[in-house]
Amino acid sequence: MKGFLHSIETMGLLDGPGTRTVFFLQGCPLRCAYCHNPDAIARAGGEKITPARVLEIAARYRSYYGEEGGITFSGGEPLLQGEFVHKSLELLKKEGYNTCVDTSGFGNPKYFPRILPLVDTLILDVKAFTSQSFEDLTTIAGFERYLSFLTSLDNYGFRGQVWARHVMVPGYTDNDQSMRELVGILKPIGQRIDRIEILPYHTSGVQKYRQIGLPYRLEGVEPMDKDRAKELEIGANRMFAESLHQERKKAQEKNQDKLRILKDREVVSKAEQAEMFSALRKLPLLSDVDVDDVDNVLAEVILSNIKAGDYIFRTGDSPDFMYLIYHGQMKIFFNTIDGEEQIFYIYRDGDFVGGLNLLVNLPYRYVGQALTDCKVVAIPKSTFDTYFYDSPVVLRSVLTKSFERIHWAEDLIQRLATSNASMKTAGLLLKLAARIGVRTEDGGIRLELSMNREELGNYSGLRRETITRKLGQFKELGYIELVGNKVIIIKDLEALEGYVL
Ligand code: SF4
Fold first, then answer.
1. What is the CATH code of the structural domain delimited by 265-413?
2. Mutation test of ligand 1: which of 41, 165, 214 has the most ligand atoms closer than 8 Å to its C-beta?
3. Which atom of ligand 1 has the smallest separation from the CA of 40?
4. CATH code 1.10.10.10 region(s) in the chain
5. Per-residue pLDDT for 470 more than 60?
6. Where in the chain is the domain with CATH 2.60.120.10?
7. CA of 214 relative to ligand 1 center, distance in Å
8. What pLDDT digit, counting tens, does each position of 29-65 carry?
9. 74 CA distance to ligand 1 middle (Å)
């Protein structure tokens, strides 16, 4: 495994925090009008280098890095050499190096989830703020792709900080309106932005174009005035701080609303509270909490009555609470691109949701809605962080739940992609049998459903009419018995299993 290297700067002070060794990689899919490294654009060429060699070079300069410094991959476009960058970062991270990648977000997306969790600082080049200006500047119609990279950083597992960089060319973006647009683009990753840097355009690369016989598209454009660029940089950072402040305020208000709703529905009967607390004390969840602290935990949790149909959380909600279903059923779903509801999971007594969100501080990506009247224990983030964050029991439970969810999602994808309606219906019945089935005296399995036919369809990827028809057929075949709308008795489990084998 080898990468194509353009050059190395051993004591770089500009490309990431502290003192760094910067590996400029060869190759870039963009053609920025101001690019001062046109010789780095072709992918082939340059020196070949292995990840092991990168590590060797890093080790040689390690003593200069201090607390903050480390290794930067720049270019060209380093993400274009996804495998090489991934392998190099893996080696560097194993040895504890601080890492930085300077990118415009163009490369093979397959490597993004492997690379980005290993990056401490991402220098994100913001080329332009509209589709047209992006294309004019880079010659590539890639603005949507760029925005998708930017907004997917969290999903790719990036947990570091972002330095946003914009090269300012006079007559193009040297105005307040452009700075507002720049701030707007960065909003979705607001929490990750450490700074916005404006790099004044300069003409020192023009000579290179002449040498290699390439036309220079900004011929005649004067260098950007440094003081004006600084002024606009300060303005952009101020604007950004203000927008972040507003966002936080909104999030806090939303938080307060959520808290108020939970409090409004709080279980008030003392006897009921005592009964719930006594049940909670016996939960494994509390087993790692110091005995002296258990009362504090119970004093901080909110016991709420949630009515069937009420929302417990929605997509995009910040992770403020972990929820334990004390009694009842909750559906977790998301709306597909064509507006259909896809039920992902049904939670019931003893299940909890949101632990992973609190652990990794990620907003909810799905909706939680009560299917039946529920009693829910809401554990605030502050309580979670104080008493549960390091608990092996809680971590194990969160992992198990996450694994179950991944397994269910994989299963769902498989079913949706490869099954016909009979298979999907049989698969759904088997899933429900394992989850909520109760053996009857005559050997059947009774399913007490909290979902109507439409929701059953949404759970299995079928339309309401189709699932109704399929259940009718299974009934005709003697595999199941339908008792009203809410009870199904499975009479021939083997026959249903035959559909999904
Ligand atoms: S992204 Fe960087 S290397 Fe690529 S063309 Fe633009 S300025 Fe040059």
1. 2.60.120.10
2. 41
3. 3
4. 419-500
5. yes
6. 265-413
7. 15
8. 999 999 988 888 887 777 999 999 999 999 999 999 9
9. 10
Q: Indicate the residue type of 417.
A: A
**Which of 28, 43, 106, 204 for mutating ligand 1's site (highest number of atoms within 8 Å of CB)?**
28
Distance 165 CA to ligand 1 centre (A): 13
Which tokens sit at 452?
């109507």
* Alpha carbon separation from 97 to 54, 62, 93, 285 (Å, rounded): 12, 9, 5, 36
Secondary structure of 305-357 in the HEC alphabet?
EECCCCEEECCCCCCCEEEEEEECEEEEEEECCCCCEEEEEEEECCCEECHHH
According to CATH, what is the number of the domain 3-253?
3.20.20.70
Give DSSP secondary structure letters for 258-278: HHHHHHHTB---HHHHHHHHH
**Sheet of 341-348: strands edge to edge?**
311-313, 367-370, 329-335, 341-348
Q: What is the pLDDT of residues 306-336, one digit of tens each?
A: 999 999 998 878 888 999 999 999 998 887 6
**C-alpha–C-alpha distance, residues 27 and 76, integer Å:** 5
pLDDT digits (tens, 9 = 90+) for 207-251: 888 888 888 999 889 999 999 999 999 999 999 999 988 888 888
* Amino acid letter, residue 488: I
Pairwise CA distance, residues 45 & 7, whole Å? 11
The single-letter DSSP state of residue 108 is -
For the chain, give the mean pLDDT: 90
- 160 CA to middle of ligand 1, Å? 23
CB distance 131 to 144 below 8 Å: yes
Domain with CATH 3.20.20.70 in the chain: 3-253
End-to-end CA distance of the chain: 41
Residue of 30, 168, 208 best suited for mutating to test ligand 1, as the one with most atoms within 8 Å of CB: 30
Pairs from 396-404 (Cβ < 8 Å, separation ≥ 24): 397/284, 397/285, 397/352, 397/355, 398/355, 398/356, 398/359, 401/351, 401/352, 401/353, 401/355, 401/356, 402/356
Q: Which residue has the tokens 């806090």?
A: 252
Closest residue to atom 8 of ligand 1, CA basis = 35
Contacts of 110 (CB under 8 A, 6+ apart): 82
Q: What length is written for the chain? A: 501
- Domain 419-500 CATH class label: mainly alpha
Residue nearest to atom 2 of ligand 1 (CA): 76
Q: Which residues contact ligand 1 via a Cβ below 6 A?
A: 28, 30-32, 35, 37, 40-41, 75-77, 104
- Smallest CA separation from ligand 1 atom 6, residue: 32
Q: pLDDT by residue (tens digit) across 127-140?
A: 999 999 999 999 99
Ligand 1 center to 237 CA (angstroms): 24
